[in-house]
Amino acid sequence: MSKLKNDTLLRALLRQPTPYTPVWLMRQAGRYLPEYKETRERAGDFMALCRNPDLATEITLQPLARFKLDAAILFSDILTIPDAMGLGLYFAENQGPKFTKPLRDERDIEQLRVPDPGSHLRYVMDAVSQIKKALDNELPLIGFSGSPFTLACYMIEGAASADFIQVKTMLYRRPDLLHQVLATNARAVTAYLNAQIESGAQVVMIFDTWGGILPSAAYHEFSLHYIEQILSNLVREHAGSRIPTIVFTKGGGEYLESIAATGCDAIGLDWRTDIGLARKRVGHQVALQGNLDPAVLLSSPDIIVKEVEKILQSFGSGNGHVFNLGHGVMQTTPPEHVAVMVDAVHDLSRNRH
Ligand code: CP3
């Protein structure tokens, strides 16, 4: 038995009965909140927030003070792992993430090592423990990591990219080298997520933001294969509770059956997939998380309520749905619209359980 006061997220991820559909949002703590911008201003920059457990805790709690969310998510970033590998992460204003030492040649790849979560990534584990304590068993805490392939995309390009041409070039010319990076990343992600679980994370989510850029066979070989490897080496039970896992591949709607077969507990859907059809395909095996188009939150309260209703209707009655957006909250989202969405999910889902 969980001593959590609100365990609807954990129950829904395990496809157990809940009184209503739980809801949280990807990037629920971020730049659409004025209080986030204020804290970031005080800290200087984004990584200073991640590296300071007091500030990471403060920011994790910000959206929970405003909205009736059913989960907290660790405030951090997926790129902490390559940073701990020595690639030198930094964020240039409005240009997204960059690395001072991206993987440029075979030698760089040979030298890549799995970082010890207890030393180089200690600040993340400290944030997890501190957030867990601050939550005081009110809500579950979600930990996360990037997928080995998504991390490799940034490590090889050295920055965000529109087409990931260097990664794809390596994939076709030197698949052995890409596999070497991915195998190291998979071991790093496994150790990192297991350390988050040891520190108190009650759910873990793998963000495969770029798996969807690959052709189907390459997706299975270079992305999903390594996700499966991680899942089979994760601690699945801690302190007497099952630790549910969520896999989110943006653009992965075609692969639901093979994602379900990895042994994850839930699949995160982006906004393109029809959740009702997804449920018919894999709902007997896994829970589903999603999948309101984040742009809906830029519209108006009445439209938001209607779009929430459409997704609840499409999923249908019964268990195994965690409401979320199909990708992160957009920066220009009015916070009041998030409140409308969260309340609509709770109100409109009660008679479906
Ligand atoms: O969901 C949450 O609230 C938890 C925090 C979280 C962040 N990043 C905070 C963040 C999570 C889960 C992530 C994951 C992440 N980071 C992903 C996977 C999910 C996705 O969005 O597809 C990726 C690809 C990254 C890499 C990354 N970090 C990018 C591309 C950027 C720039 C984004 C932008 O819009 O400029 C970041 C920075 C980042 N990570 C911010 C936040 C709140 C914005 C930093 C700032 O300027 O304050």
What characteristic shape results from the CA principal axes? globular
Number of domains: 1
Helix coverage percent:
40-55%
| Poorly predicted regions | none
The structure class reads alpha/beta
Quickly describe the structure.
The chain is α/β, with parallel strands linked by helices and 353 residues long.
Question: Which helices and strands occur, and which strands form pairs?
Answer:
Blueprint: H1 8-13, H2 34-43, H3 46-51, H4 53-66, E1 72-73, H5 80-87, E2 89-92, E3 96-99, H6 106-110, H7 122-135, E4 141-146, H8 148-157, H9 165-173, H10 175-199, E5 203-208, H11 216-232, E6 237-238, E7 241-242, E8 245-249, H12 256-260, E9 266-268, H13 275-282, E10 287-292, H14 301-315, E11 321-325, H15 335-349
Parallel strand pairs: 1-4, 4-5, 5-8, 8-9, 9-10, 10-11
Antiparallel strand pairs: 2-3, 6-7
Bound molecules: coproporphyrinogen III (CP3).
